[in-house]
Amino acid sequence: MKIAQPASKIGNTANDFFNRSCFKDIDQWNKLTEQLGTPSDDFIGRLQLNVRNYVLSRPRCEGHTFEVLFPDDLFRPLATTHPNLNAAIARDLLCKMLVIDPVHRISVVDALSHPYISMWYEDDEVNSVSKQEVIDNYEVNNKYFHDRYVYL
């Protein structure tokens, strides 16, 4: 029979868990802005007040160019002569995807038509399921998981 731990012991266990090395350096905002730069004042102004205050309390960062973040040697040479499979065009897609502000981030539709991706685009793969089928499937799965796990 397992004896319940006193609350103070459970609290210490939780502290020990969160003080493990894998949790010590979690500061995603700073890591992101150090690489990509601090987003625009327009974006910061749209944040919730407490989030905005945190962001404004952090130092502004210029970020790095995508040529620095993703140098040519990160892209292995491809055994193809396709002109769009090169580091510069891959970097162009990455810089459009890795935008903090979703208003200015590339859309899925535009990403699918980007030169680095478009050669693999097949309309029947993208449009094989109707929106209504997706909604219906989501509702069925959501009900299944809710019914199954609500009492866990």
Q: What does this entry look like structurally?
A:
There is one protein chain. Mean pLDDT is 78; it is low at 1-18. The longest helix is centred in the last third of the chain and has 19 residues, at 131-149. 57% of the residues lie in helices and 0% in strands. It is an all-alpha fold and 152 residues long.
State the main characteristics:
2 domains, 152 residues, Transferase(Phosphotransferase), domain 1, mainly alpha, flat
Q: In the CATH hierarchy, what is the superfamily of the largest domain?
A: Transferase(Phosphotransferase) domain 1
Mean of all residue-level pLDDT scores: 78
In CATH, what is the class of the largest domain? Answer: Mainly Alpha
Q: What overall geometry do the principal axes of the alpha carbons give?
A: flat
In short:
With 152 residues, the chain is mostly helical. The chain has 11 helices and no strands.
SSE topology:
Elements: H1 7-18, H2 21-24, H3 28-36, H4 41-45, H5 49-57, H6 66-69, H7 87-97, H8 108-112, H9 115-118, H10 123-126, H11 131-149
